[in-house]
Amino acid sequence: MKLAKLNQEIIACRKCPRLVEWREQVAREKRRAFRDWEYWGKPVPGFGDPEARVLVVGLAPGAHGSNRTGRPFTGDASGGFLYPALYRAGFANQPDALRRDDGLKLKDIYITAVGRCAPPANKPTPAELDNCEPFLVREIEWFKPRVIVCLGRVAFDRILRMFSVRDARMKFAHGALYALRPGKAQGNEWLLKGEHWLLCSYHPSRQNTQTGKLTTKMFDAIWDTARELTTHA
Fold first, then answer.
1. Residue 53 neighbours by CB distance under 10 Å
2. CA 22, CA 36: separation in Å to the nearest integer?
């Protein structure tokens, strides 16, 4: 119930005027290929198993992907690379993610983001991410995830900031794995207890996958590692 309430709060958020204007403009004007769709046009809540031990943190919804479908990484090229990998690793019941009612279910994994609204040029401002951060804090408090998978440098930097980590040895690199110690986020109570892990991956954006910066083999290795860390919990 607490998670459902949080997701309703996320959907109702209007804290960032620039993002509200942009997401709603995109939903009205639409892309020609999706002119018959009723766009979501609101902040996108998290999606997955409410008892997940793996928390996946992305950047923000795509204008014609999640902003259209209302579910993370659904209906765009990034999701077309992510969900087949989750399916191969046993985290998803199917490889396809096209719309909210397509029957997709996740097991032991929950997908969220540091930004909940589609931003112009795919670039939320630091202030906009600050407005979203309390939502992510509450998700981490809820899940107390064994593994946090950061898709991209922005998500990685934001997680380090949340946990007040100032360790120069912790740098973003694909496949990098770090022990995450209990920490505080902006005065909140301790978020994590025990042993937890921060796992880094390049974002499955078309820019990375079509250039070969992120390959299927590289991405599969991330989810194999996440599975191994939960198996030996």
1. 19
2. 20
Q: Which residues of the chain have pLDDT under 70?
A: 181-194, 233
> Which residue ranges form the domains of the chain, and what is each CATH number?
2-231 (3.40.470.10)
Look at phi and psi of residue 187 and say left if phi exceeds 0, alpha if psi is from -120 to 50, else beta: left
Contacts of residues 125-128 at CB distance under 8 Å and 24 or more positions apart, as own/partner, are 125/18, 127/16, 128/16, 128/18, 128/19
* DSSP string across 43-65: PPPPEE-TT-SEEEEES---TTT
Cβ contact 87:80 at 8 Å: no
Instruction: Give me the DSSP letters along 161-176.
Output: HHTT---TT----TT-
Phi/psi for 68 (5° steps) reads -90, -45
Q: For residue range 91-131, what is the model confidence (pLDDT) as tens digits?
A: 999 999 999 999 999 999 999 999 999 999 999 999 999 99
Q: How many CB atoms lie within 10 A of CB 47?
A: 22
Q: Which pair of structure tokens corresponds to residue 78? A: 């990034």
Nearest one of 111, 126, 116, 135 to 55, comparing CA atoms = 111
CB distance 22 to 57 below 8 Å = no
